[in-house]
Predict the structure of TIM-barrel domain-containing protein.
Amino acid sequence: MGNFKLHTHESNQILLYNQEQAMYAQIRVLEPSIINVKISDQKQIEFPTWTITPGDTELPFEGVSRDNLKPFSSPEYTFSESNETITITTTKLKLDIQKEGFYVTWFQKNAAGVFEQVMTDRKTQSYQHQISPNHPTCHYLERDAEDMYFGLGEKSGVADRHGRRFRMNNIDAMGYNAETTDPLYKHIPFYITYKPSIRQSIGIFYDDYQNSVLDFGKELDNYHGYYRYYETNSDFLDYYVVAGPQIKDVTKRFSWLTGRPAKMPAWAISYSGSTMQYTDLPDSQERLNDFLEQCDHHDINVRSFHLSSGYTSIDGKRYVFNWNYDKFPDPKAFGKHFVDEGVEIVANIKPSLMLNHPLLDEVLAFDGFIKDEHGEPLLIQFWDDEGYYLDFTNPDTINWWKKQVKTKLLDNHINCTWNDNNEFEVWDEKAQVHGFGNGGSFQKYRAIMPLLMVKASREVQLAYNEEENPYVISRSGCAGISKYVQTWTGDNRTSWNTLKFNNKMALGLSLSGVYNFGHDIGGFSGPKPDPELFLRWVQCGVFYPRFSIHSWNDDGSVNEAWMHEEVLEEVKEAMHLHERLNPYIQSLVENAYDHYEPIIRPTFYEFEEDDKTYKDTDDFMLGDKLLVCPIVEEGQTQRQIYLPKNPEGWIDYYTGDVYEGGSTITVDVSLANIPFFVKKGTSLPMYNNALTEIEVQPF
């Protein structure tokens, strides 16, 4: 395997070189709690990063150098070397490097100030250079049977990933099974290891945008013992270790590392109407105007509407930035009518042009599409036809996109963009991009293409309305996407199982630096939700910062607040609660911006010392004050609830009953509401019942 010898040691960068295998290993001490490791056959990895943008670091479209130290404090540390090892120690972390072959063991300080081992490379081959030059780039780590693994962003199943294998590759997974389907829409190869025996947590992030796999014990090989691994199509390995010791420490530091979460306008928290059916119908504008009248008739507060792509249709197919004037005779008047009613339109836009798109020749003229290996625009499957994906590594494409957003949307009082179908499903391994003048393989850029797309959308929106925080939403994304957008968990399927597991999927996003999101309430695809399921979905969804009822039901029906008369009053009451909670949720959005903390949180995030909070549960925290206990089973009339340990206790929001922390209770359940509890001794900023004034309500 060869010996890694010290090559250079300058400032906070230590470079090792294995002459036998012509391999470099670089260690950068960035913060007392963050250390970066790079392994490559190149002395310097030339391919930029788009995700390592600490705090308010400005991100140019062309990315930043992977060796950039400017955003970091570059702290003091100790360095020692023997014939066999190198040891690097900060006030938070210590790593021991075995020079023969390059094996790393990580230590972290416990509460007593003593370093404890928290992570170590697999002793029987950890990296490609130890296995075979023909093996994919990889990182194998030892795995303890008791370890718990959290994160990975938007992934199906329970919060603890132990025992599963996941693929990182953004795809359009419409109708997915929220318990089992993988991959989904987002690419975030970051996870937290929690070691229960020593109550220590540590994170690791792979700064890589290609198709990859993470295995947490699905695989077993007699030669290697228990292990976990990351494997990628990239030709280099670049990972960041983020210290705890608490889970919340890791989460907040990773959020900071990938960029400050964006502030959204306050109205974005309120109910947002949406359905594909309205814009697919020939009388779209009338249906949308009727929606506003129905909201007014039912006394439902609505502040935005997500305009599905049917507004761009030609012969039933979607053509981004094209207005169908049969459906919308006067887009500007339509947009102004909604804005005058206090409702923002969020227009669906897609990064692909169909073969007969009216603007196709414009983009062909400046060579703005992703290409095949011969330099010709790459024809791909997109929806129910073929087309070309826009290349957002081409500055001309970015400028063209901004111009279309301005002239087709913003100039028509359509102030917000819904960046959709932006998974960039290009399956040609030889596909090529402009690469900001450097050319190169599309696959290297795959996961950051949606980030570049939404960055372009956000910039033109911000320039158009400088006094406001722009509202941008995206279905797909990578680590750091929260710098620009609100998001949601994609095109889910109507079922009780989806309701249950969407809440668990939320925890993975929240622990991975993506905080402002929600789910399609009622289910996007599949059957029309029955009254009970629809009501329970609404009652759960009102606790999320994104609250939108959205659908494309198989039978052509529409999910609307008033769709089931028998539960209409209960639905309205839940939606009213969401509006009353708006100031509290807004305070959590601002806290995410200021302090990098999630909005939706697993119970163990707040109560890490309580072992029972690590058990799989349907409950979650909204901020640090509210415990939400959704009803996710059909016909449920009682609910058993574990109230996490806290010295003050808990108050039932509806009954005022006080309960001791650390207790398990059983409560009766009616259709009127779902159980949720407030930490005793806290106060919530809430609108009064008339939604006219904010009051501070003590509990």
